[in-house]
Fold this protein.
Amino acid sequence: MLISAILVAAIAVGSQWWFSHVITRTWLYPIWAGFLVAIVMGEPITGMKAAAYIQLTYLGWITAGGTMPGNLMVAGVFGTALTIVSGASPNLAPTFAVPFSLLGILINQAYMTINSFWVHRADKYLEEGNITGVRLMNYVPSCITACVLYGIPAFCLVYFGGDFATKALAAIPQPMIDALNVVGALMPALGIAMLLSFLGKRKIIAFFFIGYFMTIYAKLDTMAVTVFAACIGVLVYVFTAKNKEEGEA
């Protein structure tokens, strides 16, 4: 059980840290993260079924503008692990995964908030020309943070069993939850602000208003606007490339 707990903790850290995106983005989805958990816990069939049920629950999951309806990685890893540890039927996996997913939102907000300190430290090293320090700040502190916030809880869940998870969820102080909820409420505004800062360029701001008025006055849905945007993008690219070729000629 000790080895399984360590390996599950490593999967939990790997599914959140930058390492996951370097290899494959499928770490984001319960069907893969849960499958890995099932393998290391010695229950591949049960775990795969549990991961599949969890995946169906979040089939339409998407993050937009900084909003995060659920933490898929936490749902897949913790939900599958708890299903196996408790010996429950795989079709009950979503009932375990959803509370962990919601808690995972708070953990993710804490993770990003703490990591912002390393970013500022990396900026300082960059101003000093210390590239080694920049690399150190990019990799090591974020890994330690991921180990503390994701790895240790995953280890304890597998090693100590489901009772530990229930007690841990109930022991979280309400002020901490409220503080993280405030941070979470600010994240969508930050994401939208970053998006608008990019769209605010003089060359492309017109496209933003075209899309806006198409949805408000023409009553077009997102898919229709996306198709029109893709067509316009292709036309802009073709004519830009043609003008560039003529200029070079």
Remarks:
- Residues 93-127 form the longest helix (35 residues).
- DSSP finds eleven helices and no strands in the chain.
- The mean pLDDT is 78.
